[in-house]
Amino acid sequence: MAANEGSLLVLVRHGESEWNKLNLFTGWKNPALTEKGRAEALEGGKNLKAAGYTHFDVAFTSVLQRANDTLAIILKEIGQEGLETHKDQALNERDYGELTGLNKDDARKKWGEEQVHIWRRSYDVPPPGGESLELTLKRVLPYYEKEIAPRVEKGEKVLIAAHGNSLRSIIKHLEGLSGEEIVNTELATGVPIVYKLDKSGKVLSKNILNHESK
Predict the structure, then answer these.
(1) Architecture of domain 7-42+49-213
(2) Which residue in 77, 93, 131, 163 is the catalytic one?
(3) Where do the structural domains in the chain lie, given as residue ranges?
(4) What is the tens place of the pLDDT at every residue in 19-29?
């Protein structure tokens, strides 16, 4: 299947944000991209263009600025600034509850390294007042199945710019991963993940477009 044929779903985690840089739990807070983050988004756009992915039918993103700006940078780079775009909080990052805004080292001092590790790396244990990855998936997947999957199944080319854990939710669904497998799946910032899918949404191929794939 050539780059511009068939159903295409591209997932991109936003570039580095100011709070990523400071090692803070970000969740639903709204810090801007750093200069590095903007450069990562631009590199993602360049890698899409180099691979021949320069035409999408629709884009989806969260309501958070770091994802919106990442999408805007990519669309400008591939020449699709006017693309139909849908923003929804269903695609927001996992809500970290009482951890939000804390430096990860400070959180470890407050609750202990083991407990913070459980909150960060378990599938179904939420932090106080927040969401586990399982709860995030239960928010993301109904939106994906109602709004995004039908566009993919029609043969459209779909771009999603969102967050580590909202994208993990989609990846778990697409690849049939276990809870343990998905929490150990790392997503690089600004790096497009290209899925080619059949009409039923089954994955035919997956390609991660980073500098090593050029």
Answers:
(1) 3-Layer(aba) Sandwich (3.40)
(2) 93
(3) 7-42+49-213
(4) 999 999 999 99
